[in-house]
Design goal:
Length: 228
């Protein structure tokens, strides 16, 4: 589930309600986006702003001025993981967002995220994804056993693997442009994911190529395709 299960359930993206909805559908995992506030609180939201409040330059207390339409405040990563731990069988796919204030803040967010996952004993149910290659490397350094998938699509499987990162999560068009990459990654023992795959034709094509994971806004459709 990409940002939780929200589209057909009419829930806010990245809300705790959307995480619970992913568990109700018995999905493999639910993806969510993590940002660092000005006062070093990790929060879960897709955009750089939460209903107009810029996350990187706001305090957590300032973000509480706004709410999701379902009444939830912006979830902290701590709240999100604690909720996720109760949803047995669901993996937490933690996307570490690139901080607009620079790579140092991105790496700070990566370090704090790994610490949070460890402190909450959620290492066995958490996988990491990031567009920042430096962040993927940092997470690998701090959590060598973790599953990490690089998102940006600009590096070959061999280049990613050499850096110790054990997975790829690329836009599905990347696997069309580079037709051997999915199999190249598998030959290296890497796991492969594609985003954001919302049509039956694209889902079938990737399933035929034995992709490991598909990230989608349409998990109900993907479940139907998999049952066929
Ligand atoms: Mg994301």
């Amino acid at each position: 589930a990409h940002r939780g299960v929200w589209k057909n359930s009419h829930l806010p993206q990245n809300s705790i309600a959307s995480l619970k909805a992913a568990h109700e559908l018995k999905l493999f995992g639910s993806e969510f986006d993590v940002h660092l506030t000005k006062d070093n609180i990790l929060v879960v939201n897709h955009d750089n702003d939460f209903y107009g409040i810029d996350i990187a330059t706001a305090t957590y207390a300032e973000l509480l001025a706004k709410k999701h339409p379902n009444g939830e405040s912006i979830p902290t990563l701590e709240e999100y993981i604690k909720a996720g731990k109760k949803l047995k069988g669901l993996r937490l796919i933690l996307e570490l967002k690139t901080n607009k204030l620079g790579v140092e803040r991105t790496l700070e967010a990566a370090t704090k995220s790994v610490e949070m996952v460890k402190n909450l004993n959620a290492e066995k149910i958490t996988d990491y994804i990031a567009f920042s290659f430096e962040a993927c490397q940092k997470i690998h350094e701090l959590a060598p056993k973790a599953n990490i998938q690089y998102l940006n699509g600009d590096k070959s499987p061999a280049d990613v693997n050499t850096a110790g990162i054990n997975g790829l999560d690329y836009h599905f068009s990347v696997f069309k442009k580079n037709a051997s990459w999915l199999q190249d990654a598998h030959k290296l023992g890497m796991k492969v994911n594609a985003w954001t795959v919302n049509t039956e034709d694209e889902m079938k094509s990737l399933i035929d190529q034995k992709i490991d994971f598909i990230t989608t806004d349409e998990p109900e459709l993907l479940l139907q395709v998999l049952r066929k």
